[in-house]
Specification:
2 copies of one chain form a homodimer.
Chain A (H helix, E strand, L loop, with lengths): L8 H12 L5 E2 H10 L6 H14 L2 E4 L8 E4 L6 E5 L5 E4 L3 H13 L2 E2 L5 E5 L5
Parallel strand pairs in A: 4-7
Antiparallel strand pairs in A: 1-3, 2-3, 4-5
Helix pairs in contact in A: 2-3
The first copy, chain A, binds a DNA duplex (25 and 25 nucleotides) through helix 3.
DNA sequence: TTGCGTGCAAAGGTTTTGCATGGCA
DNA sequence: TGCCATGCAAAACCTTTGCACGCAA
């Protein structure tokens, strides 16, 4: 049977931030700092554990790991989107592209590999940087 | 002016392994263990520093970072190739695909983003796992 | 009251850095 | 001899875990 679950201040604070910043990417650390700043401090451990749980629940998504950088999280809204990250300035953005589905289909058919669009990260150089 | 550079046993040992295993992915740790095993031990720090230098020189490539996993390296031979990694079994493979260039061109034209094929990692589920 | 959630401190794993020593040219 | 390379130990860094306490239901 499913485990009981409590609604706590901390979880609310995390969810509130995420729903208010739907298209933003953030790290556990930055969320921790933010919550401390607005007077709703949540322990870093709890931030990690809450985000982990939200990922399991499908509410949040862990993504866009740049080399040595900390993991990024974001609120899940709508259909899964791939990320593009600029290797020069580090910016992370969503890739909204119709072509990607066709490409995914090709990968699936010709290379028997089921692409996970939301986990896939495209690296390159963004418009500003080149 | 360019810095002087020495040819050392350690660098040779690393290069020898890499050229003998051109299509393999390996971690700093596994290379360290391998070299110890074949009687050419190289300190882990040196392995990291040598690989870092080889990456700067364009001889090696750092790639396919799975979440909490250590970084993978591989010998660079020929044209840059993207990697596909199976999120279920963790296997890393090269993606040899003609379509990818067309896709990269589209990303460049329509989204003004210069895709770096060799850095990009496609996540998904491999043929065996699904 | 029950037991999940929290938060501190400590440990974990990977990678980097400091520093004295070693070895190539 | 000059000075880059090495390797040990220690630090840095992000993340997870242990454990006692707090708090929602």
């Amino acid at each position: 049977m499913k485990k009981k679950e409590y609604a706590t201040k901390q979880r609310e604070a995390v969810l509130e931030y995420m729903t208010a910043n739907k298209d933003c990417h953030f790290t556990a650390e930055s969320l921790y700092e933010y919550l401390k700043g607005v007077g709703s401090p949540v322990g870093l451990t709890t931030v990690y554990r809450t985000l982990e749980k939200l990922v399991r629940e499908g509410v949040a998504e862990k993504c866009g790991l740049q080399d040595g950088m900390p993991a990024c999280y974001e609120y899940v809204c709508g259909t899964p989107r791939s990320h593009i990250v600029c290797t020069r300035c580090g910016k992370i953005a969503h890739l909204e592209c119709g072509q990607i589905d066709a490409f995914a289909d090709h990968i699936s058919d010709a290379h028997s590999f089921g692409l996970d669009k939301s986990k896939t990260v495209f690296y390159g150089v963004c418009g500003k940087c080149r």
